[in-house]
Amino acid sequence: MKDKIMVKHLDTVVVLFSGDSGDGMQLAGNMFSSISAVLGNDICTFPDYPAEIRAPHGSLGGVSGYRVHIGAEKVYTPGDKCDVLVAMNPAALKTQIKYLTPKSTIIIDTDTFDEMELTKAQFNTDDPFAELGIKNEVIAAPITSMCKESLKGMGLDNKSMVRCKNMMALGLVCWLFNRPVDYAEKLLRAKFAKKPLVAEANVKVLNDGYNYGHNIHASITTTYSIETENREKGMYTDISGNKATAYGLIAAAEKAGLELYLGSYPITPATDILHELAKHKSLGVKTVQCEDEISGCASAIGAAFAGDLAVTTTSGPGVCLKSEAINLAVMAELPLVIIDVQRGGPSTGLPTKSEQTDLLQVLYGRNGESPVPVIAASSPTDCFDSIYQACKVAVEHMTPVFFLSDAFIANGSAAWKLPNLKEYPDIKPHYVLPEQKNNWSPYNRDSHTMARYWAVPGMEGYTHVIGGLEKSSTTGAICYDPGNHEKMVSYRQEKINRIVNEIPDLEIFGDQDADLLVVGWGGTFGHLYSAVALMREAGKKVAFVHFHWISPLPKNTADVLRKFKKIVVAEQNSGQLAGYLRMKIENLPHIYQYNKIQGQPFQVKSLKDAFTKIMEDA
Amino acid sequence: MNNIKFTSKDFMSDQNARWCAGCGDHAFLKSLQKAMAKLNVAPWNTEVISGIGCSSRLPYYVNAYCFHTIHGRALAVATGAKVANPDKSVWTISGDGDGLAIGGNHFIHAIRRNIDINMILLNNKIYGLTKGQYSPTSDRGFISKSSPYGTIEDPFNPAELAIGARGRFFARCVASDIDGTVDVLLAAANHKGTSVVEVLQNCVIFNDGTHDAIATKELRRKNAIYLMHGKPMLFGDDNQYGLVQDGFGLKVAKIGEDGVTMENVLVHDAHCQDNTLHMKLAMMEGPDFPVALGVIREVEAPTYDAATVQQIEEVKAAKKYHNFAELLLTNDTWEIK
After folding, report:
1. Domain CATH number, residue A103
2. Residues 465-484, chain A: which have Cβ within 8 Å of B?
3. Do A214 and A172 form a contact (C-beta atoms < 8 A)?
4. Do A206 and A245 reside in the same domain of the chain?
């Protein structure tokens, strides 16, 4: 029968799974992205969930969504709009309507569209589609009741049966996209290895969902097929930004020959890095869940003092608490990697949403003249490469380093070609030298990098004292001499400045003589790149540069920026990078700003429209 | 261990101590260096980590791997240092403000975790470095620059807090009593787990005389009791007084009076898991009771640092991946050909 259905070939497709927080939409979305990735599609995902673990059932605030963008070629964003919306309840339909296009297909669970649920979602009538003005194609399936019917007699209680409904929805989506369910079955059996009955129930419902789609095909005009093209050969896995960050730390520690220490306190959206690293004790990873954020950072500094690759993970509010300790690492010149997975602020802000509002905080949010290198990851998979660089700079240049990620790339995932660690640069901790034995002071410096040397407890002949008080540049003893202080301030700055020799230059995508240069940093890379690519396809002369290292700025920054007549800096804050560039670089052309602070990813179309308008602006 | 290789001098740095003349910290530094020499752990295998305050300047005067950190955080820094490098001997130096006010959270949690560090708390009941404000151990009504009409809050007794946080080792000494301090420091260093040592120390400038009742050997005989595991709890010039049980409490009794004999005198059991009596002993204060000195509580328990190492070894043995390349292959992967 299947061959009678029209199969539509698409380059990319966006599926949005949404439902109540307890409906298992994150799992369904995640599995769909894995299934597609295994078939060779590129993927980019975006989980969007409420801060409350279980917001009131059926409420608008309790809707949890998971967007999956799959593509035949590389996809850079989770998509502005969706082609298929799965809405497991009326609240999901109402909140996700903004992602619909006139062509989107909607799948609903009709069992939840009753009076009670409609009321909870603040509908005034019993026809939510008319009320919202939706004229899209709708697959109205009684998912909950089919689930119960299917599992009757298996020995599951009512609650457990209903809990399988996300797999019914997934099965239906798999049918819609011509995805065989065997890989999903494998994932389910692995996930529920200890609960075989639950595994079988989920597998059964998954197949029922698939078959249901197949059997009712007459009511649907199209199924989709996404083929694979042009992917680089090799082994792949699906990885989130937080997991890639954890992997990058493990890789860097191995390459440096150091043990990895993480001092951390749970905070959304950074906690998954702690979870991931805590699993890998077989690699010697030490994770300490500390009593507070301060201790997370301070204990990492202690671990650095004692010779480990020391890391602390947090989000913006945690950075506030760690700032004093970070300054101790600045002053003591110890290697420390501080991971800030940014979220909406200020204060508790929007804990599960994404922003780029911590840039100036990490650059300047400490007392005194306190330079710290800052690198920002640009995508889930780039978290691996960027954290690796952060670790390398920390232990080679004896400095704390900030690594910025954000909720969007931390929770989002993408297909990742497994890296070969042999191809990554060596990491050589800046240890004291044998010839310095018994004739060494802790603030002796390498004349090239200005980095001091690392002496680790247990090394005979290098006992010393370091600390937060200003020290003599020669003897390392406490020193309040005015000239010495100014010299030490400049040394600490110069040490950071010289890192510029080891970081890559900015790369210009697009036209070297473009009419507009788009500038971005961090997790917005995918959206900006896509917007610029679309504009270029449309014949516009536009270029794009994206910052990874922000402190220090790449060597060619001034030259690159001065090449263009117009610059727009696009970021998810009120203009922090734009202001920083204006301060750091003289004689720049006028910098336009594109700023969005809504806790949501950029929309490619909005970017394109805004940039086009700036180009037209005389 | 029979050949003593190190002397106090080996633990002295080239810096002159900058504490005020007559400050109790001078004597404590001497005791610490003596104890370190007796322990015979090399200076390069010894770490001294402090917070902020007068006493926290101590690492500058010790030859070891030393770290003068930030206010209140010595224990947090030491926790990371010990976990990273568990075979080193780690000491922390804090005062009453550093350890119990700004660092109070780390104080209770380090003790709860039972990480193997020697935690020295120099208690002079005053903020000295900021020039004389009351501290969390100042007595109610204490007059200071920040409490000109007297404080209206009760102090912590460090022992009560430490034992309440599941402390397994608590000892107390008087800074001016070098021998007593060295004994306690050796016991603290030899104990596996968090060893809390309260050092009663005098601030000559801002709180002179706060520990006067036990400042000299003679006074300590009268007003203090040296507790020793397995020994009867006796004190006084001729050990004529003893501690006896009085209902659920303690009482000072004179041996030979009111029918009290040596049989009635309690014998100190520092190793008793139940901390009730330890708490009572630690809370004793004048004029009705002697101040308890020596090792008040010392019980064995798993240490955090050893458990960290053990868990890593166990997981290494149980799991099949031991490097990054192997870790990658634990994921669901697919190949694009």
Report:
1. 3.40.920.10
2. 465-469, 477-478
3. no
4. no
* Shortest Cα–Cα distance, A469 to chain B (Å): 8
A257 interfacial to chain B (CB closer than 8 Å): no
Out of A195, A226, A257, a domain closes at: A226
Answer yes or no: do A302 and B45 touch at CB < 8 A. no
Alpha carbon distance, N-terminus to C-terminus of chain A: 59
Q: Is the pLDDT of residue A228 over 70?
A: no
Judging contacts by C-beta atoms under 8 Å, the chain A residues touching residue B324 are 247, 250-251, 254, 283, 421
Same domain, A46 and A175: yes
Q: Among A46-50, A106-110, B172-176, whose mean pLDDT is lowest?
A: A46-50
Give the one of A231, A237, A308 whose C-beta lies nearest to B84's C-beta. Answer: A308
The pTM of this model reads 0.92
Please check the confidence at residue B2 and state whether its pLDDT lies above 60: no
Could you tell me if A250 and A220 lie in one domain? no
Number of domains forming the structure of chain A? 3
- Asked whether the beta carbons of residue A236 and residue B65 sit closer than 8 angstroms, the reply is no
pLDDT at residue A218, rounded to an integer:
44
Final residue in a domain of this structure, among A423, A440, A464 = A423
Mutate which: B49, B91, B93, B328, vs A, most A CBs within 10 A: B328
Q: Per-residue pLDDT averaged across A519-538, rounded?
A: 95
Quick: pLDDT tens for B27-64: 999 999 999 999 999 999 999 999 999 999 999 999 99
**Within this chain, do residues A212 and A247 fall inside the same structural domain, yes or no?**
no
Same structural domain, A164 and A288: no
The answer to whether the Cβ–Cβ distance between A292 and B318 falls below 8 Å is no
Q: Is A229 on the interface with B (CB under 8 A)?
A: no
Rounded distance between C-alpha atoms, residue B328 and residue A428, angstroms:
23
B13 contact residues in A (CB cutoff 8 A): 465
CATH number for the domain harbouring residue A563: 3.40.50.920
The residue among B128, B171, B207, B143 whose CA lies nearest residue B281 is: B171
Q: Does A111 touch chain B (CB under 8 A)?
A: no
| Beta-carbon contacts of residue A247 (< 8 Å; ≥ 6 apart) | A239, A276, A384, B324, B327, B328
Cα dist from A484 to A134, A158, A447, A472, A477, whole Å: 71, 74, 18, 6, 11
- Write the ipTM: 0.97
Q: Chain A: nearest CA to B143, how far in angstroms?
A: 31
Instruction: Give the C-alpha separation, B38 to A226, whole Å.
Output: 75
B292 neighbors B282 (Cβ within 8 angstroms): yes
Residue A311: which CATH number? 3.40.50.970
> pLDDT tier at A227 (50, 70, 90 boundaries)?
low
Q: pLDDT digit string (tens) for B50-102?
A: 999 999 999 999 999 999 999 999 999 999 999 999 999 999 999 999 999 99
* DSSP string of A258-309, one letter each residue: --EEEEE---TTTHHHHHHHHH-GGGT-EEEE-SSHHHHHHHHHHHHHTTSE
Residue of B nearest to A34 (CA): B332
Nearest to A40 among B80, B308, B336 (CB): B336
- Structural domain containing residue A103: 2-226
Number of CB pairs, chain A paired with chain B, less than 8 A apart: 201
Fold exhibited by the domain B8-210: Rossmann fold (3.40.50)
Checking if the pLDDT of B191 tops 70, the result is yes
Strand partners, A137: A105
Q: How far is B331 from chain A (nearest CA, A)?
A: 7
Q: Is residue A461 part of a domain?
A: no
Q: Does A193 touch chain B (CB under 8 A)?
A: no
The band of B109, judged by pLDDT with boundaries at 50, 70 and 90, is very high
Nearest-Cα distance to chain B for A298, in Å, is 5
State the pLDDT confidence band at A238, using cuts at 50, 70 and 90: confident
Give the model confidence (pLDDT) of A475-496 as tens digits: 999 999 999 999 999 999 999 9
Q: Give the pLDDT score at A48.
A: 85
Q: Is residue A459 part of a domain?
A: no
Are both A249 and A211 inside the same structural domain?
Answer: no
Report chain A's mean pLDDT, rounded to a whole number. Answer: 93
Domain ranges of chain B: 8-210
